[in-house]
Amino acid sequence: MIDADSTRYEAERAQGELIAAGHEDAWGWQGPAGRVRAERRAKFLAEAARLGPGVRCLELGAGTGEFTARLAETGCELVAVELSEATADICRRRVGDKATVVVGNVETGEGLVGSEFDAVVGVSVLHHLDLLLCLEHTFPLLRPGGRFAFSEPNMGNPQIWLERHVGPVKRWRHVTPHETAFRTSQLRSVFERAGLAVETCEPYEFLHPSTPAALITATLSVERLLERTPVRAIAGSIRLAGHRP
After folding, report:
1. What is d(CA 170, CA 102) in angstroms, rounded to the nearest whole number?
2. Residue 127 belongs to what domain range?
3. Which of 40, 59, 117, 212 ranks highest by number of CB atoms within 10 Å?
């Protein structure tokens, strides 16, 4: 019998090699709108997890270091864990001695045994995981009173739904077979059942990574209006934050 977890891990490592070979553009962080999206995610993580000097932080799913580099700027003591050696190597070169980059598995705790953290954060990582395993084996490393913050794709968004359910769209967007996305109620419930206190769990963001630079300001103005209406339910992402009691 083929082990389902091993199959998933191999798929993630293969995606890491694809990204390392030059397909990082699939994530959409490099264009003008993508940079805005990345900056505000990093700002949310830093503020919600209260990162700064003296705070020991674990970043889950560091990838090539797009957010590792930004988080390190807070002055926190940062450990970034990544399953793929290919992308972890790029991350190491990107951040130098500003963060410790570990090849490990956040579903099993591999590479992190014996560690303790004041904060656990990540961007677009939880939807790649067996979240229950991650909560069982990695979140116990978060000390009591420690904080967590994540940004994840919203299954209520039409594009995200298509990427997860329509084969040609999934392949075009380099979505691995096991990737999912979350509804806010589902994400909140899973964290609360794990004994974590959720302070924020809400949809946000209508700025698409392909938005032309000339339209970003106008789009952000419209976004602020939409986030005050029921249409917010189909925003592109979910932000989650809280603490361990």
Report:
1. 29
2. 4-243
3. 59
Q: Is the pTM here over 0.85, yes or no?
A: yes
235, HSE (Cβ side, Cα atoms, 13 Å): 26
- Pick the closest to residue 27 from 74, 67, 73, 60 (CA basis): 67
Q: Percentage of residues in the chain with pLDDT exceeding 70?
A: 92
* Count of domains observed in the chain: 1
Q: How far is Cα 128 from Cα 12, in angstroms, rounded to an integer?
A: 8
20, 72, 101 from 112: Cα distances, Å:
24, 19, 11
Q: Which residue has the tokens 């077979």?
A: 177
Residue whose token pair is 């972890």: 88
Helix, strand or coil, per DSSP, at residue 2:
coil
Q: Which two tokens stand for residue 161?
A: 């739904």
pLDDT in tens, 92-130: 999 999 999 999 999 999 999 888 999 999 999 999 999
- Residue 154's domain is classified under what CATH number? 3.40.50.150
How does pLDDT run across 162-179, given as a tens digit for each residue?
999 998 888 877 787 788
- pLDDT tens per residue across span 228-243: 999 999 999 999 999 9
